[in-house]
Write a structure and sequence with these properties.
Subcellular location (chains A, B): Cytoplasm
Structural class of chain A: alpha/beta
Strand order of the largest sheet of chain A: 11-9-6-2-3-4-5-25-26
CATH topology of the largest domain in chain A: Glutaconate Coenzyme A-transferase
Radius of gyration of chain A: 22 Å
Largest interface: A-B, 64 and 63 residues
GO molecular function (chains A, B): citrate (pro-3S)-lyase activity; citrate CoA-transferase activity
Main location (chains A, B): cytoplasm
Largest sheet of chain A: 9 strands, mixed
Distance between the termini of chain A: 26 Å
CATH architecture of the largest domain in chain A: 3-Layer(aba) Sandwich
Number of strands of chain A: 26
CATH superfamily of the largest domain in chain A: Glutaconate Coenzyme A-transferase
Strand content of chain A: 15-25%
CATH class of the largest domain in chain A: Alpha Beta
Oligomer: homodimer
Number of domains of chain A: 2
Helix content of chain A: 25-40%
Number of helices of chain A: 15
Keywords (chains A, B): Cytoplasm, Lyase, Transferase
Protein name (chains A, B): Citrate lyase alpha chain
């Protein structure tokens, strides 16, 4: 079957129920109600503190075949998933689905527990590191393809009851004895708990794992005590070096700086860069670097923006501090400067993944975005974007908020080098689609800028702008002229070789990721 | 049928489905999941602002037989319910259920719309004013008895799907164009939006009605944009004089001061008044006055409490400001001093009604209370408490958080005068029960203190305390010795004369309120 962007989707995929093909942004209208929360009877003066993860596994009644969840706010410094999966394996519990908001190289240990049958399915924003390589080569190691969801799509899936979590094991940098938890403070502080909020609100059992249990009431809290069943104190929930990087700096790469400069000029010349505008910058080098040029223009023209959204870095939190924006909505805090900003600046607002990007509520904040600047691993002539697999077809990235912000923003800009490692980045067809071309407006490279033909308004505004505007086919040819047309990576078309299913944010199937043949 | 406290409950009550008898606190365990939220498709760059209440009624598709909800944070200054009900009536929509978190004398206008069939059912925390009198005398004016719920019970009923709201019309003192709303600021600021939060989270349609629509992002927000379908700007949502009183002062009544002093002494002598203790004070004169004596003892003994819960008054927010407590959880803000405290003091924490008192989540904050001091209109020999009807059997009060805090607190103290207007306040049986005697530990009057016989620990601690401890029967007799035994108000036993059904916080039927015969 072909979906609305012409991707071939098998009618049946082992382990994936209710396949619904992607029809376009906002086309499918859910008629059902969302998931109901499990009702509990909160007993007065209960002690929620447990002695060990083993005790938590026992009290929650976790058993074969259930789904457990983790958030990825500890990023590559996460100790919690390993702690928990080790104890589950030690108890001989098998056939567990891990629904993580994302996975990092620190989760490579999962390979061992996939091999021994403890873990038999994954749902995540992406696959990286050795785990990504392993599953790309051995999709049969899991009982079903990994389900890839955007951050908004995951919030939607949980709230709609499509992703049911039996036990959420949530790392908490600080919590009180009732379970009110925050990521703002504590030795493992990571900032916003935006992804964790949804798991805590909907899981049948919620276990907080903390290395800073305090007696005094914790507030503001990101997870309220009303959602917390148990608390397990441990020595350390993560490695600070892996949790948040030091202050992220603007790139020094001349290519990325040129691309970033173009992005700011596109914003200016399309009229988006005006009083009260809102924006999000992706975490790639060129998107972050755009902040430098946007800032210069805002200061020169005395423009104050309304709000920014993040994945927040110090680069943005400095703009907030300096009054260039009124507010910053934060579902995930990337560096130590931004973590401090969230703790100190009242205009730095922590939000849940649902507030950020869930397409099935009355209005996530991405819906109010004027502009988003995003990266890509490759794009194609239809403006489709891949951010999951590398040029060899190996899973190494994550969906994140890419398709969410692209769908919400009035102007979606993709920034990327035209050529990476002697490979052209504009393909006839991307290996797999994370963001449909319909939601992408402008692709900016160091050698030229392509505008989605459906955006005739932008073509008109930019045609005499002095910017190197050209058809995407011409931009592709320019790359070919430099490095030649590359061979296509050959992908298996066997259904058993489907590595992952890429859900669009509304739960429909946008694409499948297939195993490369070589 | 008789329930666990021996109250006679008809097996069938017209209009009340699924009658479940009260079995005791925490006995009934729900097996079902809660309500699922209605899923929406939030369209990017939608304009939520409507021109009028009429337009909101049309857009939400409100029709005959549906349920609409209101919060009572505007208290006796509320303009919003009248605005909305007038327009519903003008459109000829009939048979509406009004589910308000409470009702005040400013809602007496409802009598007209009950008479003309616009409104045919009420669900509320209580009934007051002319409306209370009218419905006590004319229960047949509605199609079914009014359902009385505690604040926690209402949150539970909504979250459990027992109270389904078609359209929530929520007054918002300030909101932005996306619908992020707060009660902290604006000309009609009332403080916490704790009751409104639950309606907004679960109603099929959410309409904000505001007299302060602002362009800049509103934060912290009590209601998030993700829950808001429409916004109607109006001139005024309420009368400031009725919304919040000026700073509430400690009573000067010697009787109430004596009762309050006893309450503080009971706390001290039972060992509750110690480092890190938590408390809630009801809004009656003697309970609020207890703060004065508790404060004196805390200062003298250098005790710092953990947290307080409110219904918050300036009396408590001053204690918070002065460092006597670490935090204050606020579901409802009573006076202007407390409104200012919520806006300015970061330790003054806004909470939802569910966080406050919903018995069916993983732990509302009432479950962590050491002590609560509450008022009563009358009590009985079984320690049952009535706070709804006056001595003539007329509805004039509200359930509020009475039974919620009594169930949660380790020590529940009832303060009340032994005699009011020459009537003794300790009855053989209260006219109706809002809080079961099982959850009541101590009853304090100006002439004596009765301890629930099941609390042998308290009897032991207080027996040689010098306080006037006595059996409740003796306290009752003391009142009779002064003013004689009063005649019982004769109540109709006809099922058609049931004015209201009092739900316990878990949704079971605790009692029914019957029409007085004279």
């Amino acid at each position: 079957m072909k979906n609305a962007i012409g991707r071939d989707i098998p009618a049946h995929i082992s382990g994936i129920n209710n396949i619904r093909l992607y029809e376009g942004a906002g086309v499918y209208k859910p008629e059902k109600s969302g998931a109901g929360k499990k009702l509990r009877v909160g007993k007065p003066h209960t002690n929620k503190i447990l002695q060990s993860i083993d005790e938590a596994i026992e009290k929650t009644g976790l058993k074969d075949g259930q789904t457990i969840s983790f958030h990825h706010h500890l990023r590559n410094g996460d100790y919690v998933m390993k702690m928990v999966v080790e104890r589950i394996a030690a108890k001989g519990i098998k056939n567990i689905t891990i629904a993580a908001s994302s996975l990092s190289p620190c989760h490579d240990f999962l390979i061992d527990y996939i091999k021994d049958g403890t873990v038999t399915a994954l749902e995540s924003s992406g696959l990286r590191g050795q785990l990504g390589k392993y599953l790309t080569r051995h999709p049969e190691a899991l009982q079903k393809p990994t389900i890839i969801r955007s951050h908004g799509g995951r919030a939607r899936a949980i709230e709609a009851g499509e992703l049911h979590i039996d036990v959420a094991f949530m790392a908490a940098p600080t919590c009180d004895r009732q379970g009110n938890a925050t990521g703002r403070i504590g030795k493992s502080a990571f900032g916003s708990m935006g992804y964790a909020m949804i798991d805590a609100a909907y899981a049948d059992n919620v276990v907080l794992i903390t290395d800073n249990l305090v007696d005094e009431p914790v507030h503001p809290y990101s997870i309220p005590q009303t959602q917390v069943d148990y608390i397990v104190p441990v020595e350390e929930i993560g490695d600070p070096a892996g949790i948040a990087s030091g202050a992220i700096r603007i790139t020094k790469s001349p290519t990325q700086l040129l691309i970033a400069k173009y992005a700011a000029e596109v914003m200016e010349k399309t009229g988006i860069l005006k009083e009260g505008f809102s924006m999000q910058l992706g975490s790639g080098g060129a998107s972050l670097a755009a902040a430098k040029f946007i800032r210069e223009k805002m200061e020169a023209q005395n423009i104050t923006g309304s709000f920014g959204i993040g994945g927040v870095t110090g680069i943005f939190s400095e703009m907030l501090k300096d009054g260039l924006f009124k507010a910053c909505y934060d579902a995930q805090t990337f560096d130590t400067t931004a973590v401090q900003s969230l703790a100190e600046n009242p205009n730095h607002i922590e939000i849940s993944a649902s507030f950020y990007a869930n397409p099935w509520n009355a209005g996530p904040i991405v819906n109010d975005l004027d502009v988003v600047i995003l990266s890509a691993t490759e794009v194609d002539l239809d403006f489709n974007v891949n951010v999951i697999t590398d040029s060899n077809g190996v899973c190494m990235g994550a969906s994140g908020g890419h398709s969410d912000t692209a769908a919400g923003a009035a102007l979606t800009i993709i920034v990327m080098p035209l050529i990476r490692g002697r490979l052209p980045m504009i393909r006839d067809h991307v290996q797999n689609v994370v963001t449909p071309g319909n939601d992408v407006d402008v692709i900016i490279t160091e050698r030229g800028i392509a505008i989605n033909p459906k955006r005739t308004d932008l073509i008109e505004k930019l045609s005499n702008s002095g910017l190197p505007i050209m058809k995407i086919e011409k931009l592709q040819q320019m790359a070919y002229d430099f490095v030649g047309k590359p061979d296509e990576v050959q992908l298996s078309d066997a259904d058993k070789d489907i590595v992952a299913v890429v859900e669009y944010r509304d739960g429909s199937i946008l694409d499948v990721i297939r195993k490369p043949l070589v």
